[in-house]
Design brief:
Blueprint lengths: L20 H21 L2 E2 L2 E2 L4 H50 L18 H21 L4 H4 L8 H6 L3 H18 L5 H26 L4 H26 L3 H23 L11 H15 L18
Antiparallel strand pairs: 1-2
Helix pairs in contact: 1-8, 1-9, 2-3, 2-7, 2-8, 2-9, 2-10, 3-6, 3-10, 6-7, 8-9
């Protein structure tokens, strides 16, 4: 995710970091080069004058703009829904931690020693499982290995089943349910409170399933394919429709129109999958660090990791 102040004035035209320009520079350059050739030859190739009027480009351009706008709205809805799900995850982790320290029977809150599962307090184990869940969900959505980030929050006995689990976040949810059942069986929490705590676990399942739905259900390929083809055909044919009316300004106008259409098309592709590691994707690592800091601070730990800071305006 790009985090920087809003640019103004001439800076708008020279910012590259976070811009969509690097992704579209090749087709944009090819379109402008074709427009220059058409301008120099006046649209004449092999002795044949290619004549097109601006009228069909006006009609197609309007339809294409509406089409791209609708597709980008769908892509941003996916992006924003992903952000809301991760915001819900932070809320659930904070609420569940507060409820644990309010309603689960009190144990001595001595300074914590590694590994956490050597301590008898179940609420400490549950909080650490919540941190592990956040890290595991992030790696699950990014198709990366989560063990290095979760190993300090799990008992040694969980290593083998965790590594072989089909869905590692769901495996951790099962461990959380087992811890809650253990509290109930040992009379460390009342039945009514246990039901409310279980609702939070159900909400975590909803967050996991919602994120998987976004990740595993992209916008239909045929929809994107039609948009790509139409945008490219429109921009490559545009010089032939403008050369007779605007002359030497054709490459400039074609460049601006192509930048707009290619840029919106590429931007929709980028935010359609919000859980990746591109510059405009969600900062999942930063949100995991927020959960880690809040929950470990609630446990009374002092040696906490530093919050993640943007590096060159980008934070993952």
């Amino acid at each position: 995710m790009i985090i920087r102040e809003r640019p103004s004035g001439l800076r708008l035209f020279f910012i590259i970091k976070g811009s969509i320009l690097p992704r579209i520079i090749r087709p944009l350059g090819a379109t402008v080069l074709l427009a220059i050739i058409v301008t120099l030859t006046r649209g004449i190739f092999f002795g044949l004058k290619i004549t097109m009027t601006p009228t069909p480009f006006s009609l197609i351009g309007l339809a294409l703009a509406i089409f791209i706008g609708f597709r980008n709205s769908a892509s941003y809805d996916r992006y924003w829904e992903g952000r809301k799900l991760w915001g819900e995850l932070i809320i659930i982790c904070r609420n569940l931690t507060r409820q644990l320290f309010t309603f689960v029977s009190h144990e001595q809150r001595s300074p914590l020693a590694r590994p956490p599962f050597e301590r008898p307090a179940p609420r400490f184990r549950i909080v650490y499982l919540l941190i592990a869940f956040a890290h595991a969900l992030r790696h699950h959505l990014r198709d990366s290995d989560s063990w290095e980030d979760v190993r300090e929050y799990l008992p040694d006995s969980a290593e083998a089943p965790f590594k072989t689990a089909h869905s590692k976040p769901n495996f951790l949810l099962l461990m959380l349910a087992q811890e809650l059942r253990s509290c109930l069986e040992n009379d460390q929490v009342g039945e009514y409170v246990a039901v409310n705590l279980d609702r939070n676990l159900t909400a975590l399942t909803t967050v996991l399933t919602g994120c998987e739905r976004i990740k595993n259900t992209p916008i239909p390929f045929s929809y994107n394919l039609l948009l790509h083809r139409t945008a490219y055909l429109y921009c490559f044919l545009l010089p032939f429709g403008l050369i007779d009316s605007i002359g030497f300004m054709t490459p400039f106008v074609v460049g601006i129109v192509s930048y707009t259409f290619f840029g919106l098309d590429a931007l929709g592709d980028e935010i359609e999958e919000p859980f990746g590691v591109l510059q405009n994707d969600l900062a999942l690592s930063s949100m995991c660090r927020t959960i880690e800091l809040d929950l470990r601070a609630a446990l009374g730990e002092k040696n906490l990791p530093e919050p993640l800071r943007p590096e060159n305006y980008c934070i993952l």
